[in-house]
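INFO  loader      accepted 1 record
INFO  loader      residues=102
INFO  predictor   begin
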Amino acid sequence: MMPRWRLLAALGGAVALAPPPAPFAAAPARSPAGLENQYWSWRGQAIRYQVAEPASPNGQAALLVHGLFVNADHWRKTLKALADAGVTAYAVDLLGADPRAR
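INFO  predictor   done
INFO  writer      dumping tokens
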């Protein structure tokens, strides 16, 4: 498959090549709920996730995965409720759903 910029050039389109943005440049340091945005590297991709840790953990953990057209910030109220109940809660972004992908 032909790279997109070559295809545009072949079709007579203007081509402006710029370096990709620095990793995590567009992502805020914290989620709307105030949780730190953390990253895990998987197969060359940076996966954003958030962790809500309770003050008194009960040994339980929950993994929250969002649906289409939203991201891990969708779980902000649920993360807080689970942490308040003593559950360590993780919310993970699917590939392409974190704020850097927009």
